[in-house]
Design a protein that fits this description.
6 copies of one chain form a homohexamer. The first copy, chain A, is of the alpha/beta class. Chain A has a single domain (6-321), classed as Arginase, Chain A (3-Layer(aba) Sandwich), CATH 3.40.800. In chain A, 30% of the residues lie in helices and 15% in strands. The first copy, chain A, has 9 helices and 8 strands. The two termini of chain A are 28 Å apart. The relative contact order of chain A is 0.19. The complex binds manganese (II) ion (12 copies). One manganese (II) ion binds next to loops of chain E.
Chain lengths: 322, 322, 322, 322, 322, 322
């Protein structure tokens, strides 16, 4: 009808309508005040929705999966955006935390489901997963994070050298996984996939600290050595069975040629077809939530980053519904 | 809530909900299959909505008019888009005609109003006004068009030289005012404002034919001779009082520096501040409908064309409501 | 001399000069009125020509093929563009059909050739191949289509849901292969290569219908499983020997990173080097015509889509001439 | 030498070298965490420096003023940027405040000057002027602000409706002049020039509150009524003589056609030539500091916004030095 | 026919076909190796031709002039481009000089004309006018230049400070008018219009030297003081009657908002409508040649600079033909 | 501090401060006057520096190499740019030659080093390596060039057909390796990697001439046949041990999707991750100098070309320092 929802899905104001039930909700988090370099991801949700306009439920059959995720058992809706201030990161964190507390205390639409609805969050910068994981932990206990990113995002806040420190600036898009682990929200079997960041100092201490936080690492270049199947095998071996998994896709895991529209670009990443192929090979995972973050439209070109993100959302919903 | 409606106005599916009443409706017409050169205006409605996201009813007071158009007596809503095929202009014309027939047979929300709701249409190419005027004529009788454009748009179809002619290709964005006049839908006091198009042949025959169609012409360059007040005075003198006026704004009336995102650009146009000033000086006109057309996002830069269009919509709504 | 022809080739007005003979003609079809989403491909011919300006016959030796296609036995010329209206798809279809009827009734320049000149068409949207195949059929009988595309383009028109149907809207860039097959113009051994489109409904019915139309399918992701050589082997096995083949390259077969400038983008496609490699491995095919379509300059960046298309044209001409 | 300083001026690290003296310092404030809409102004200083690379002191004679500001009595340098966190606006405010406290406690290079060096700040978002004015007040007492902007920037923080309020979010780019006035830092004779913002609610209360804060208002449209000379006359009459004036140029005072690269665009602004003409007519004002803010390079096109800003800096330095 | 010539005019290879006669020739000079800052103007001719594609002789009536310049007495053609090396400015100068010597020794097509054909040159950087004026001088004697530019272009080469000097680097786009005057090619009544460049040193010496070279100066800002009619009056008074005039339009005379696609941008210029209005008011001048230079497509946006240039060419041809 | 140096390294004016010692210098050469097609590489150094701003020595550990190149034994600095005229290629060649003569006659900072400092040059077009190699030859004798490029760059100048020849135009970005070899500056074991250029004429004569010049060739497509490890093996076998190697990276070796911002684009190149992987596998080579050239910012998108170049510089410095 001209009003952009994700894939023309029905829109409900999930946060306000307390009696609403649903199974999978697409929800935007237009927040980018915790980035270290280029902002703009606050417009990510709007851009991903615009890039999804060639998706319709009547032509939504996913040939890779053999289902149409919008016409299965699940009620899939677009929840709109979480309200969040750009000017005070502490307040923003509270707002996002309250929103997900609200959403994860709902019932699913599908009869017999004992889980709350599952959410695919559209970032926003990567810091938004801290409030999400805090609330998932309350429902499911420790969460295993499958983290696609060129960066570690497990830097302790003091690794960001600056003149002054503050509690608010600890909440940033490079430290939220460190915070999540410190708070006890994560399992011991988390995975980074697609890494290629420069590290602090003159030795491997960032990696050592990351080990202590319970993360396995798959570097971007490994695909050149063990191939795509090697990457998939590694993830499948490392990922715990039957325990709650959260899939977080920082779009900067992709190569800049495929995803220029992001804030902290690292050359030498994966191709979109490779990432989609990996995601499709993980269908039997117990996914309790997912996101696509760091899509920054002001730096995008011809929508290619938003289109990649839109496809990833589609694949994530497919996996949740299958 | 993250779902783009014009100015965050409430959205209703006006075409489907037959019992819906409203006073002013913003409606998109994503149609550009009747253009002679660069297409893309089918994405105009979406772009104008996106560019209006800094408008909210709580901060909508128009300092130029002294009212907040979203908090006056009128119920102003976003009707979404008219469904329209891009692949068959004859069929598209039928679809648009039916849609406006539908919309103009409604009652207004405001008690005591004897008019149907008034619509501000977001183009789409300029041909969309033919179905609009056909339906306005059914309600109001002959319409006076105040036509802001760098082009005449009163060319008879045979002035588009080509190898073959066809009925369908007669419906194009340069001939629809000729067709409207031929069909008897227009008054004798229509006005073109902002003209600067090249003409056919080697003499003034285009202008002569335009005279016969009942149009007055104000060329773009006149602002350099008689000033902005001169332009306004001329329009006010020419425009009939107390008879139904339709205001059509082809965004290419603006200079390319202010509105690069359009299909048939003509250098040397008016500045946005001049157009807004003119529009604001015409508040006492009996406006029965209005549009902003030919916004072509693929050729826009930094949203400036869409922002201009969004402002013009706001000014048109202000005039309708005042 | 400053006037852009493809690769600085000599320009003749092939449609008008009835006595002109040539062997390979590059011809533009600036038509995009049958697209379902983003228009702009009408400017494809102009953009491909501009992107070919670094090609000259004196430096045209193709190291992949071992010949200089512009200095072999063949007279290769730029025929300019087919005149075609954007405003009436039925009329446009007639205009294009007449143009190819005209061109394919010529004699070749090369003595002893019993074929008419062969044409490499620059789209325009993909619907342009219907009039081409209609005329090729008249010369050669049933044609085998090797169809590089992310989409099937064999959808029956009624699979495009809309409020009204019409005959004119049946002619669109997703149904022309269905129409061609229905009209009996195609062989039973056609191939889609590079598919990754979403399908209709909740099952494989699109694929089943495609089977019935005589198409084999190679999905984009197969390159991740069987490698580039696997793809080539599959095409070579499927393609009939010694029968007339038409090669149609929808530029959206490429990944959006390599070809952002197109209308209906699908993430996860092939790299340009892969497509060129495939094309070069098919030199012994009896090519009776070819095209590159769906290049949409308004969405291109730094000419990369047009450059890819320009290279593909060069490779296609090489194959025709070798 | 290839290292971009503003206008190839010598660079000193003013904040670190405590013994450094200078007369006019260009200083960047790469901070944009207090914006309400599009971020990106943190890259403003870098873009303005890049756009100034065609300025050299040996070809720096300002024909409008009759002097070369880089070869007069004053030592003009580029101080580099203030370090400032993007992730905690409260901390950022402290960092900026300390930086200007530091800078304004220096001595000038020019013998006999009793003033500290004067600074031209490159924003950054408009909120950066709060720490600047706080420190100017400490040196000069109440400051008169000549505020070029399409927005009031005197909104009390509670006029930004949101779900929760917080102290940190009060510090934003629309409220800092309200805060400055509340803190007693401003005179009673401040001027807004170029206004065209929508206002809160349904009446003139924003303007009334602005009156109470000691501001005069010149709307953008007045140039259409009283002309450029009228605007200049008005400013000159309103501006107090012989008292310290701070000139703040929010680049959004310009029309979007001239300055697309900013965060909160308002159509219908002044042309660059008009703004420069106004600035040049105010040479006899006692300028104690100045800025150009809200230049957001991700939204700029062909550098035109940064070029305008670079020119404005040049004119401001000229006025300070003359 | 799809092959871009200026305004779809017939194309002849004027330099090669020695027997060709014509009255007005459009000729491209794809040379930009004498620029001091951003190159790219070598693609100017191609861009101006592309931007002229909406011009056709059958719809070419100029309403400002009352004629259709393409259907008057004159044979107007597109001569293509002058061949010119980008890698050796001395050689390039020789190539351009020979080309114009060739062209200006032809006869006109119009019977009774005693003049050679007149050329409208599409730059290229501004240095291209030196070989043009050298050859015009040979035909007409001293030439009066009406020079629209934001820059003087009468700087003696030694005003470009550098480590080494050379004869070749004297030929640059800021000194060619100095060279032309030194060589005795110009009259004493030349005019700069639209100036706003910074000057050398600390005084008016650039202007003084310009005086000695026989130039009058009209600064850009004068339009704010004496209005558009004032500018026109000044030019008309200064321009000698009945003596040969060359009109050179450096596109940077326009404001960056109207002409971002140029190499050495100066903010605060004229609007396109103002320049066109000035050009149209000079119809009775004896124009022996003209150009539009410094259009640099890599920095253009949405073709607006090329469109402005294309319009200026149209107006110049109109004046030549009228 | 806001002043862009490469990777925030300390800046010294290496050419002017004759007593300065250092081990690795990053130096810009803003010269593009020897290109055959699109200029713009003169802004390459500035763009590469801007794209390196997310590099800091405190977070500079290279996980691929296991060292932090900025905190090893070596003093790494940014030398700024070489001054060079754009308007006279002969003079420019002299200026560049003198600059490298100057730089390569310095002593290293590292005690015990008998080599002069090593330089990583930021182009600029590819012709800049002629003056570099001339000076390296004076220090080290014949140099082996490892040349990453889609083009041969060993064309003898007469292979550039044109109307006139000249000595200055022999110095161009396609012939400098031919000139270097002719002058005896190169070894017999040079390597081209990534070739995919069209060749002259109708046979392999370009390759034959290249053989005679002592070059081995690795075509771009070989990666599709022998894989990335095959490419690396081939380079390692061909590259002489213990003799001085110069690594030259023409950014057009990358695919246009990864490096659109260059002048002479060839589709079908390597991915950035492949090039980085190759570079990292060559750490034991005796590198005496290196460059990244042909980065042309006006044609770049979202900085992706400059980011790739910035990463390559980082890898080259890593190899030099390891
Ligand atoms: Mn991340
Ligand atoms: Mn990341
Ligand atoms: Mn119109
Ligand atoms: Mn129009
Ligand atoms: Mn297709
Ligand atoms: Mn397709
Ligand atoms: Mn402001
Ligand atoms: Mn503002
Ligand atoms: Mn000039
Ligand atoms: Mn100029
Ligand atoms: Mn090269
Ligand atoms: Mn190359």
């Amino acid at each position: 009808s001209g009003i952009n929802t994700y894939a023309h899905l029905p829109h409900d104001r999930c946060l306000i309508d307390k009696n609403l039930t649903f199974d999978v909700g697409i929800i935007g988090i237009p927040y980018d005040s915790s980035v270290s370099y280029r902002p703009g991801a606050r417009f990510g949700p709007q851009a991903i929705r615009a890039a999804s306009q060639r998706q319709f439920s009547y032509r939504g059959f996913n040939f890779r999966a053999g289902i149409n995720p919008y016409q299965q058992w699940a009620k899939v809706i677009d929840c709109g955006d979480v309200p969040v201030t750009p000017m005070d990161s502490s307040l923003a964190l509270k707002m996002m935390t309250a929103a997900f507390d609200n959403l994860l205390s709902r019932e699913s639409a599908y009869e017999g489901s004992s889980m709350p609805p599952r959410l695919v969050s559209l970032g926003g910068d990567h810091s938004i997963i801290l409030p999400i994981i805090r609330n998932l932990y309350k429902v499911y206990g420790p969460i295993t994070v499958l983290h696609f990113d060129s960066h570690l995002d497990t830097w302790s806040p003091e690794k960001y050298p600056s003149y002054w420190q503050s509690e608010a600036s600890e909440f940033n898009h490079g430290s939220m996984l460190w915070m999540a682990k410190e708070e006890g929200l994560l399992s011991e079997h988390n995975i980074h996939a697609g890494l290629r960041t420069r590290l602090s100092g003159t030795d491997w201490s960032d990696y050592l600290e990351d080990d202590h936080l319970g993360f396995h690492r798959i570097e971007s270049d490994e695909i050149l050595k063990i191939g795509l199947d090697g990457i998939i095998g590694k993830i499948r071996r490392l990922l715990p069975k039957n325990s709650p998994v959260y899939i977080s896709v920082d779009i900067d895991v992709l190569d800049p040629s495929a995803a220029p529209g992001t804030g902290t670009v690292e050359v030498g990443g994966w191709l979109t077809r490779e990432l989609v192929y990996i995601l499709r090979s993980l269908e039997d995972v117990f996914i309790v939530g997912a996101d696509v973050v760091e899509v920054s439209p002001p730096f995008d070109q011809s929508e290619i980053t938003a289109l990649a993100a839109s496809q990833i959302v589609y694949e994530l919903v497919t996996s949740m519904v299958k």
